[in-house]
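so the lab meeting is tmrw and i was supposed to have these ready like two days ago... anyway. pasting both below. for each one the top line is the aa sequence and the line under it is the structure tokens. i havent really looked at them closely yet so no promises
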Amino acid sequence: MARAASTRERSGTPWLWVLIVAAVFTQSGLNLLRPVTSYKLLAFGADSVAVGVATAAYAIIPLAVAIALGRLSDRMLRLRVLLAVGAATLGLAGVGLALAPNLWGVIAASAVLGFGHLAFTIAGQSAIARYSSPRQLDVGFGWFTAAYSVGQLIGPFLGGLIVGSAHGDGRLGAVQTALWVGAAIAAAGTLLFVAPLPGSPRDRRTEVEIAPGPPDDAGEAPAEGEANAAAGHAASGGDVQAPPGGAVPGAPEGRPTVLKIMRRPGVPAAMLAALSLLSMLDILTAFLPVVGEELGIDPGVIGTLLAIRALASIICRAVLPWMVGRVGRTLLMLSCLFGSGATLALPPLALAWWPGGPGIAVATVFLVIGGFFLGIGQPLTMTLISQSVPGAWRGSALAVRLMGNRLGQVLMPLLAGLVAAPWGPAGAIWMTCALLVVSGAASAADAGRR
């Protein structure tokens, strides 16, 4: 039995690697578009409050439709359709950002960009939660979020390279070029889902049984009986397919609701952790360019700093399974929240106190450490939430997680813009660091109760 399960896990992953490659394309485009959008806003004469509003717009549509998309993903026979829609929407939003003539055009395109990202992310996370055995959840989510980190590395670096040190009218022209490049890269992810993977049985509906299992702080593999018996069949084909009618054998009656999901032990703390971690990424991406502009630092340098942060997250996720086995999820989660909150408050200070090379070097060190801590959190929150709900609820639970993230992505940039008005753009970053520390305290309290 164990050997058969191992064979399934090794052979049943072509769909995962296609998903990973597509995620690299979409997230590279997305993470080129978002920081470059800040430079376009600055070229329009926008202030920190306007940057906060445009950043919040990115999450407005996802906040309204996250639950509906999660339920749709639970019922869909072929998740690759939703993946393709997400990638194509990201590309179209990039075109909208390039063509936007003013602040309101940027806000509208940012909202569409957020919907595309939500659709792709829900479909990808649902595929991993549905077809990965409990022992493979950390690996699947780890690779998926590592792909996002690769995009977070490539996108800002490429954007900074294109915008470079251009100023005046030349700056706006370089920004426009970068936005078109970002749109093309994001849209390229659609091509991977045009047809099923080679050898896919198109008309096959695979029944899957997924047991949530208890949280595994020790990192031990769950019992063989908890494995998804049909994961190999589903994954070795091209289409990621749902069970007939979207049902999962042995699932509890009744559809999942936000209230039911949030009442599951461990879910609220994991939701707050996910919200604070993603808010940190958003605020860094939107406001570190504003910090750099205020201090006279070239966009190429800021893009490199953001890319270095992402590289540290990639390194972290490459060793995440080992860390889970050695340390356990609870301690890793607390380390990530407290560690990132402490270290990421320091780069703006370093850049301001030591102008030029010394400040950039010190900021790089703290971004590496903070990026490593940030990289721990997102896959762990996905695993903890997936294992805290019944198997049939996983797509919806991950959608609730994304809805919480989007709520944070609406509120936090708005608050950040208000804080940045008196305190400067660095104040927005410090406020989000404080949220990370609060989230760490909440996770510690939850762990103590459990």
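ok protien two:
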Amino acid sequence: MKRRNLLLLLIIILIILLLLLLRHCNSGGDTGNKPTIDSPYKIPDYRKDQVVIFFKQPPNAAIISRIKQSMASSGIDTSKITVQKCANCTDMQIELWNAPHMDTYAVSEPVKGGSSSGSGSNGVGEDTALFAPNFIVSTPPEEYPNMPYDSLGRKRAIRFPSKAGADTVKVAILDTGIDDQLMGYQQLFWKNPDETLNNADDDHNCLKDDIYGWNFVDNNNNLRDDSRDGHGTHIALFIINEFQRDQTNALQLMILKTHNSKSEGDMFNILCAMSYAANKGANVINASWGYYSLFKHATPYSQIDSIITAGLAARGILFVTAAGNRMAAPDDSAMKAGITGTNLRNLDLHYFYPACLGGSNNNIIVATTVNDSMVSPTQNFSPFYVDLGVLADEEEGGFLKFKVPYTLGTPQYVSGSSYATAIVTGRIAATCKKNAYTAPLRKSNFLQTAGLDIKGSAKLDQNKQVNGGKYIIHN
């Protein structure tokens, strides 16, 4: 009888140990709020069979040969490699390489995601190139509209105040495109002065008929917004609206389509669009998009960081980007990697790029949506990374929303840090003097401008969600 009791006790102990082990595995281990180093959830989504190569010098035959030899030793069939360069004859030394399993070359080890030599490297040599997956970069709204965006059913009432003699600020929108109906207001849009509609490359930038911008998704000049929610079009409307309230500057929108009908873009096309914007004299880039990762300033992002905070800043270009919204798949991955549910919106723990390339006094301004005391519970916050909140027009169903400008009839509302970003972009571009866009550009040149009419919220500051509790009011 005693032996049976002892056996039963042992069985109970084994069951308890097994349950504790299962709980430990499902929670990602005792990691607190930080992901484990070897977490498979650190890398965000990326294009399969592709790798973006950042050359540190113009590549010659010897460099290409060394890279291919290294790839072959990693199991890549180099005979199947195809190479894509930015269509716009860019001076940016980047290429997109395609081949079966090519993506494994960049993500097989954490160190490889951007490193070209050193421990765990691809063995190519640090003086040669950096490698990164072709990350997928999304512009999803916080909530999809019940009906798809229909330009034919939307009537706009846009007025243009006289701005004779005002400085012109060029704002490049890298997004899903623009409603054809809005392109009728041509005075609002940048027009390439060196190009004519003749199926030729008049300005010798390798793009034919890039009159108002370029479609980097389909590699043509069709800028039509084909996203379900009209994301890029709404971004443009919020920016235009800010120029209606201030007489300081005139606006030219440069439309660069980087995201497809599913509101998805990728890092390679976005970098090509950034180069186009810089070469065509953009003053501001609006980046209402991003991607989550559990790396913090690790090698996969070092070159992207350099392109924005060094390359664009050196050319006097301000980069305004979104703090990011709640997204189901990245949130699920983060929780599996050990980040608790209460910290999913905290950019200090759950990193969203390019927002998390900001923080210091560089050329990146990060925006989110707020009420009088807190950031929207569906959007990201950080007293270090988030520079400015935008006060929402109304709250509905747990979402902080903005009223879409220039819509006749029933008011329409949208929510998301994308639109807060556009409002900040428009406010800065409309009010800040043109001489603020000097190199090396710093965000403090703009955030101290009286015309922005920045308010301060003690509660926002106390809650440590926005730097200094600073916000502006949407008009």
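from a quick look at the 2nd one: The first strand starts at residue 46 and ends at 55. The chain has a mean pLDDT of 84. will dig more after coffe
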